[in-house]
Amino acid sequence: STTPGDSTVGTATATTVAAKEYVAIGESVMEGAYVYLEGSGVRTFAKEGRGPEGAKNAVIKYRDQGFIGTGTKLVIQVGHNNFMTADQVAAIMAEVPADIGGVWFMTVHGDKAWIADNNDVIRAIPDTYPAVKILDWDAVADQTVLCSDGMHLTCGGDTAVFFYTNVILEALGLPAI
Prior knowledge:
Distance between the termini: 52 Å
Strand order of the largest sheet: 2-1-3-4-5
Radius of gyration: 17 Å
Strand content: 5-15%
Largest sheet: 5 strands, parallel
Number of strands: 5
Low-confidence stretches: 1-14
Helix content: 25-40%
Number of helices: 9
Mean pLDDT: 92
Shape: globular
């Protein structure tokens, strides 16, 4: 015999996981802190070269798989790789579940032509989405030693990695490493 609802069980249901309390989506800068973020309880999906479209697609993918759901605290860092627009941010936000536990967008840091403009876009997000908090990596990144590109974390041992990780953990209310 079948139980009610059997006909609705499909591959999408079979592959979903329980929503994680903390999820981070980013690019290569965040990738440098992957081990420590994961070890601190932040499920981290970071990929080199990810831009706003990739961040949006990651939100869709991990939402649909169940990682991002009710109560999830979501950190997004995007904008190190190219210019981004408020419309691209809106496209990301359109995919974030309404019952999310919170969204933090991180500013970016480095010596590229688009960094300052992207940070203006990022810092303006709460004007449109008042519940979004800004994690101002750009404001504190000079307090640690980054790679020669002024962006990446992993060139001088773990000092910058720990610093970056702790900026995220502190914002989420998690213990520092």
